[in-house]
């Protein structure tokens, strides 16, 4: 029995939910098993900024009481879930992995997390990430390094690296992440889990600390595609607190998982292969595409000619929005403030702003604030920001054009597998280039998913990216699920 219990943490969300339903286990058993796992592996991995054990045990007991009273709220009632430290959680510290929010305890809850608690989920803790979600390795966190569970000398990817590592190391059943240019998909690929970036506007951004508001998306990071579908059912939907959410009914995404993909047209955009790709990663993704072919899909080569400008477009629009969004951290309203220091009180308002921001923001945030203000400044606005918006439209049209010919696109997620700490952090440009395959999706606003596809000869995970047209999540999840089944590697776990 003890042995059985000690493995509860390995369950998928779906399996755990079934065992809760049948009465085989309680949410308290499951939550305790997860915390035992955390005690053993978290010292090695470092996935969390804050653990909420007391709250979790309380929520688990409440879930068990509901179940006894036959008042269970949903399929995820009693399921332990981790949340990226970018989602505001009422009365639970929320840092965005930045010192400027070191002592920030929100007085409100994000819509996405509120939906989880309304469905009965249990909060395990807040996961580490790149500072304000800026990065691809979780190295820009002001708090700690998160290690890749597959090789502790390597990064877990980013910016949702803590969430990916926590799911991969079985420290939660599932996690929430955010994706502005790849932050759900790239760490999912590097840690061998499933990461779904939904259509822009499908999931509310209310209460999630903003990075670049026209690109930010919220999504699930899970052990399986089915688990991602279950969570999307809960997260999706219009929200009056986020005017960009789409007023479109939410289907049952779980029901879309069993479709046949025979005859489906899968496009391979030639611009995503070739230069800069690690040959092993390239091979694994191409083998993945052959597997889709074996399932009866028609593989068609397509071209997205303007996609080569997408990274440049992103690195103009994103910093412009970052500069505006981060203006609110001024040392007055909340977060780190020089005014709070008795000894070194600022002598003027300007000094208060400058010193609070200088002390509170890390280098990457400062770099992007400066870039953003530069591209928005008069004299440069037309040359950079306006031009980037125009090219963004072309990128979007390229995707629309491709989706007139094919149902789904298949590409690599990242040009390489997980890299070593420090390998790219010295060169921002090299780090930015690692997002070349994930970034174009966000300006286009379409949904995309990373599904585990294989391992390199060093035993490092590699994911495959599938992309669908706007609101094409049902088709996307179906293809991803069929691929996951045929790839058959979901059960392979890192040794920790
Ligand atoms: N790595 C990309 C960046 O640094 C994307 C980050 C994200 O999606 N939040 O901007």
From TrEMBL:
It catalyses: L-glutamyl-tRNA(Gln) + L-glutamine + ATP + H2O = L-glutaminyl-tRNA(Gln) + L-glutamate + ADP + phosphate + H(+). One of its GO terms (molecular function) is glutaminyl-tRNA synthase (glutamine-hydrolyzing) activity. It holds the Pfam family Amidase. Its EC number is 6.3.5.7. The keyword Transferase applies. InterPro entries: Amidase, Amidase_CS, Amidase_dom, AS_sf, GatA. GO terms for cellular component: glutamyl-tRNA(Gln) amidotransferase complex. One of its GO terms (biological process) is translation. Residues 29-477 form the Amidase domain. Keywords: ATP-binding, Ligase, Nucleotide-binding, Protein biosynthesis, Transferase. The active site is at residues 84, 159, 183. It is an enzyme of class 6 (ligase). Heterotrimer of A, B and C subunits. Allows the formation of correctly charged Gln-tRNA(Gln) through the transamidation of misacylated Glu-tRNA(Gln) in organisms which lack glutaminyl-tRNA synthetase. The reaction takes place in the presence of glutamine and ATP through an activated gamma-phospho-Glu-tRNA(Gln). Belongs to the amidase family. GatA subfamily. This is Glutamyl-tRNA(Gln) amidotransferase subunit A. It comes from Candidatus Berkelbacteria bacterium RIFOXYA2_FULL_43_10.
């Amino acid at each position: 029995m003890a042995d059985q219990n000690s493995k509860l943490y390995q369950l998928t969300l779906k399996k755990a939910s079934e065992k809760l339903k049948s009465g085989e286990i309680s949410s308290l058993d499951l939550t305790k098993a997860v915390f035992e796992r955390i005690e053993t592996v978290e010292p090695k991995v470092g996935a969390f900024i804050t653990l909420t054990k007391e709250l979790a045990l309380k929520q688990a007991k409440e879930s068990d009481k509901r179940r006894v009273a036959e008042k269970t709220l949903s399929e995820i009632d009693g399921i332990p879930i981790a949340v990226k430290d970018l989602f505001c959680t009422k009365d639970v510290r929320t840092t965005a992995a930045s010192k400027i929010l070191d002592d920030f305890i929100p007085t409100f809850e994000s819509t996405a997390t509120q939906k989880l608690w309304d469905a009965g989920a249990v909060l395990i803790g807040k996961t580490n990430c790149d500072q304000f979600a800026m990065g691809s390795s979780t190295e820009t966190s002001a708090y700690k390094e998160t290690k890749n569970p597959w090789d502790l000398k390597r990064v877990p990817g980013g910016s949702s690296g803590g969430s990916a590592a926590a799911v991969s190391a079985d420290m939660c059943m599932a996690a929430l992440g955010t994706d502005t240019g790849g932050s759900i998909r790239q760490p999912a690929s590097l840690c061998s889990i499933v990461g779904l970036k939904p259509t822009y506007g499908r999931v509310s951004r209310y209460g999630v600390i903003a990075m670049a508001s026209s690109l930010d998306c919220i999504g699930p990071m899970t052990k399986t595609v089915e688990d991602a579908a279950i969570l999307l059912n809960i997260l999706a939907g219009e929200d009056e607190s986020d005017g960009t959410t789409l007023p479109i009914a939410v289907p049952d995404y779980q029901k879309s998982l069993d479709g046949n993909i025979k005859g489906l047209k899968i496009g391979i955009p030639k611009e995503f292969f070739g230069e800069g790709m690690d040959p092993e990663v390239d091979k694994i993704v191409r083998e993945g595409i052959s597997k889709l072919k074996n399932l009866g899909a028609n593989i068609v080569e397509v071209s997205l000619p303007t996609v080569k400008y997408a990274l440049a477009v992103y690195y103009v629009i994103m910093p412009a929005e970052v500069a505006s969004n981060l203006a609110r951290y001024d040392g007055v309203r909340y977060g780190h403030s020089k005014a709070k220091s008795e000894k070194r009180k600022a002598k003027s308002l300007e000094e208060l702003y400058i010193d609070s921001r200088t002390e509170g923001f890390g280098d990457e945030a400062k770099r992007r604030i400066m870039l953003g203000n530069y591209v928005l400044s008069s004299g440069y606005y037309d040359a950079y920001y306006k031009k980037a918006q125009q090219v963004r439209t072309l990128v979007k049209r390229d995707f629309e054009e491709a989706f007139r010919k094919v149902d789904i696109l298949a590409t690599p997620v990242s040009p390489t597998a997980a890299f070593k700490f420090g390998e790219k952090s010295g060169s921002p440009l090299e780090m930015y280039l690692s997002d070349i395959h994930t970034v174009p999706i966000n300006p286009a606003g379409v949904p995309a998913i990373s599904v585990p596809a294989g391992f390199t000869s060093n035993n490092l995970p590699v994911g495959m990216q599938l992309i669908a047209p706007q609101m094409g999540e049902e088709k996307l999840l179906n293809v991803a699920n069929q691929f996951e089944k045929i790839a058959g590697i979901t059960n392979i776990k890192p040794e920790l």
